[in-house]
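debug: dumping io for the single-chain case to check the tokenizer round-trip. Nothing else runs in this session.
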Amino acid sequence: MRPRSFDVLIVGAGHGGAQAATALRQQGFEGRIGVIGDEPEFPYERPTLSKDYLAGEKTFARILIRPESYWAERDIEMLTGRLVVGVDAAAHTVALSSGDRVRYGQLIWATGGRPRKPSWAGAALRGVHMVRTRADVDLLRSELDTASEVVVVGGGYIGLEAAAVLTKLGKRVTVLEVLDRVLARVAGETLSRFFEAEHRAHGVEVRLGVSPAEFVGEAGQVRGVRMADGEVIAAQIVIVGIGIVPAVEPLVAAGAAGHNGVDVDAFGATSLSDVFAVGDCAAHLNPFGAGARIRLESVQNAHDQALTVAKVIVGKPEPYHALPWFWSNQYDLKLQTIGLSIGYDEALTRGAPAARSFSVVYFRNGRVIALDCVNATRDFVQGRALIGGPPPLDRAKLADSATPLKLVAA
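debug: decoded output
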């Protein structure tokens, strides 16, 4: 039997894959489009999993990226619940775990990543969770009624967001972070210390510079986390948030270049002919990241790279040049980040963290490269104009939260 065939085949039904299909139609592409996803669901929003969905404040229907009818109305074929295990770049086919093959004219790889698996003994116990898919969170939520104590391993965004939600649900939460501060990989010390203090003020125990020795259990169910000194922190639920591993093995096996994800050029093209990559798995030279080849794990990046590739496919190529932005909601705090603080050599605090509305401005060689804005949406919006602008800026005005950033930039 001949394999099914698509003019453009998209592997991955997350934000990047969904946006790639949508952008192709919006750009006038009339060929056959297929989207393969390894989950049974249609594309849905992932950032809300550790926030509103975990809290039970949003139903699954409300986090769908588009209504299910949207895809059929635009003649986009959704192949859900299928796993791609191989790519034959010469034959222009992908192999599914079922043994079937699918042929493509052009391939867009948008698989994102998988949660990094914990290496500690006891990781297979019931009650040990990772937060990446709807199924992950549904299982976690099903156990909440019988749990009063939770340990969160990892002080990144996922871990802190989950800690905030579970604390609001009345759980006793302990956060374990191996580095000397939370959010150390993505923010400066001022922001880290602020969020540490906020979580502690809400009753979370934040332990820094520590790592589990093992997860301990009884009858297959986790009962606690043993530390290096022998202490056992009681827990009926453990959430592990220690990063993701880009899901690119089939592409790498097919010969695609890359060691941390798949390398792409400014147009999203990999080293394989007619194969593109977008989103969390795509390593690119980011103009806002000090020239480093990086992966950006954000919805914004997935959307903008998907649009870049769609324009290439329809013959209107424009290189990727999007200013990164991110967000995180914890308690009543809305953190919005614009730019990348990679390699910053100076940080200035605008306003007072004690007021719970402030911004941290990051510099490199005298130029603003990023802002972290806490309950300061106006700074987030106006700060865009400062990034990459010529130095010097009036530091007194910049530090004065009463002075709009648009006046500082003038």
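debug: round-trip ok. The radius of gyration is 22 Å.
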